[in-house]
Amino acid sequence: MMKKFYLMAMAALFCTAAIAQIPVTFRVDMSDQDVSPDGVHLAGNWQAAAGLPEDWQPGQSEMTSVGDGIYEYEASLPPGAYQYKYVNGNDWGPDEAVPGDVAADGNRFFAVTVDGHQLDGLTLPAVKFGEAAPEGMGYARLQVDMANEEVSEAGVHIAGDVFEQEWTPAYGTCVNTSGTFWTYIAYNVPGDYIYKYINGDDWGLNEWPAGGGPDECTDGSNRTLALTIDGVVSPAFCYNTCETCSDPNVVLTVDMSNVDNDNGGYVAGEFNGFSGQPMADNGDGTYSIGLFLSPDSTYEFKFQNGPGGWEGVPVACQAENSDNRVFTVPGDLEEGEQFEFSACINQCSEECVPEPDPANVTFRVDMNEEDVSAEGVFIIGTFTDPVWQDGAVELTDGDSDGIYEVTVEISGAADFLYKYVNGDVSEPTNEEFNGFPEQLSCNVTNNFGGWNRFHTRSGEDEVLPVVPFAACGPLSTNNVELGAVNIYPNPSFGSTFVEIENPNGYNLRMNIMDITGKIVRENILVNTGRKEINTSNFAPGLYLLNVTNERSERAVYKLMVR
């Protein structure tokens, strides 16, 4: 499993201490878990630095039980910033889902420096597996924006009474988590605390060195924190101020009036390492967040119903080759001007529209060309509760004709994704389309190297057509050799050009289908050269360009219309 990570830019400090190795003890509380017979492990981008063969390999680092459900692992690390997560087992799959408030790139994180930890090392708190904090403690995500500062070569630190080594600047090493934001995760029992940031690692470099900080966020010359058992995320105020460094240039808003929502709105995307950030409650069922993002840049993201409650983005508004939403920050924003993006969670429209009535959908898959597993045939998808593998539904073949089917009452969003599985649903190799090299006309990417089927409910009972397992239909799925193919612009805003090299001189014709399978434009001659496609009368959404030759070989391409 690939993991993204940051390395903190403290070059001078780390260079001077290149040979130092800091003992770090990782601790996790498994008292609420059924511990795997394979043991408890952890993985991260620290493993190679600790002398292990490779980073992000859970099987390399087994933890030891020290009693009361606590497991430990000790490693010696050079100074730096690191990410990690715990695994209830020895391979990816049973790894913890780290809550977004304490995560960077979906992982836990920490940093060590020589001055802060050379005497007794660093022992990480025994957080509960998959949760934000240790038993009986709250967490505080403390973050500061250094946009207006020249960051010290020693990095950014924090001092206060909010963690064990009180008022020791060199101990509280912050991590550069995103852009100009520096972050520290503190744990303690609920209560009132004070702290401040240091641009460096010692006193004299701290905020408000002469005292008298602003009343809005300080008590004297220290910032204040009211820590609760549910945790706190501090605003990313500008260093040495109680205000943000500048007004956000991007505002994202999600309408959540169509879902049960007790945990607030969150957003996760490329701008925060896909770690969920809480959004402000507007009081009308919508939530908003302001971001500081680079002009003329494109970002993929998703909204969340509470931390970790990922939305299912409809195919019609997914980014190309992805199951995420996408937006581009204009490059011509005037000073003080904001780019705004609004959408209903699980929908493409800005405001939530009524969802179709609950109704029965009958799924049917032809298994005659497959060796059917003794464990059965299943369907998984976004329509089950819980979603995907944990909510798998078994299909049956009552008349032994090789056609397996099941009827499921589905409510909620109109658009959903699904796929069939031949055997144990926990084994990805049993899923249809697993390992397929490219998209077919009946599926879309799952963004992890595989493909899912898709459907839009009508709100009435439906019986879906029989489809072969891992295929769209009885026609050949052989790909026609077209040479270079260019489709631009994509997304289309009224007109798109299709260029096909066609080195073999095939007679090529193209049909354009919407995601329901309805043909909206057919029999378009596209042998060679550039063909203009007028999309001005197409409804916004995803369309499939099916190119075929005289031998019924085909290639399928995706076109998004805005």
Describe this structure in words.
With 562 residues, the protein is mainly beta. It has four domains: 11-238, Immunoglobulins (Immunoglobulin-like, Sandwich), CATH 2.60.40; 250-344, Sandwich (Immunoglobulin-like); 359-468, Sandwich (Immunoglobulin-like), CATH 2.60.40; 485-561, Immunoglobulin-like (Sandwich). Strands 1, 3, 4, 7 and 8 form a five-stranded mixed sheet that branches. Strands 9, 12, 13, 17 and 18 form a five-stranded mixed sheet that branches. The longest helix is centred in the N-terminal third of the chain and has 6 residues, at 11-16. The chain is globular and about 80 Å long.
- CATH architecture descriptor name of the largest domain: Sandwich
What low-confidence regions span 5 or more consecutive residues with pLDDT below 50? 1-18, 474-478
N- and C-termini, Cα separation: 34 Å
Query: How confident is the prediction overall: mean pLDDT?
Result: 86
Number of domains: 4
Q: CATH superfamily assignment of the largest domain? A: Immunoglobulins
Sheet of most strands: 5 strands, mixed
Give the helix level as a range of percent.
under 10%
Helix-strand category: mainly beta
Rg measurement, Å: 27 Å
Number of helices: 2
